[in-house]
Amino acid sequence: MKPKALFNWSSGKDSALALYKILQADQYEISTLLTSINEEFQRISMHGVHVSLLEKQTESLGISLIKMELPKEPSMEEYQQIMSKTMAGIQAQGITHSVFGDIFLEDLRKYREDQLNAIGMKALFPLWKQDTSNLIHEFLELGFKTIVTCVNGTYLDKSFAGRIIDQKFIDDLPENVDPCGENGEFHTFTFDGPIFKNPVNFEIGETVKKTYPKPKTSAEEEDGEYVFWFCDLLSK
Q: Most CB within 10 Å of its CB: which of 41, 53, 68, 187?
């Protein structure tokens, strides 16, 4: 029997491509998807996608979904408590591996591996260290379709929110922006492709600006804020 694995599902393009690759390799049984949800707004953390669309998406994938609901601004202690309870339930299902769509963030990988090693599970990274320019072109060539739901205003302006990723989108990206948005420059919602039974239908709503305070590194530092643009997707 193949080992059972959990897939950490963000709803975006890197998750979709990583899931495609792990399914193609056929070495693990993907038993369930896990997605972090903002408890107050019922939206995927950072991506801003409503739970109703997430549920349609995972229904089209044909894989069960576990929603891990988090407070609006959880402390590290709260996060760890919720995660520990969630992972205990997952391990009770005989799941021994956890799959991520990360590509090259070393600190994040180490954190994930350390957390899983502590409870006797192993982490898998199907996209690790692959060239992000090659990955985004492979993603499109496979027939995946994805829309930008959130952009970080430090890197991209409002006009990039709500765009479908295609060659024109890639060409329009500034040189300092990773083509897969691996540094958090943008986030996406994938609505069609070879792992879906049918496309996920939605309508594009308004684009809204949200700001978050920057953490101060010293007492002398002036107050600042991060700006993000979110394109609201409406379930059809």
A: 187
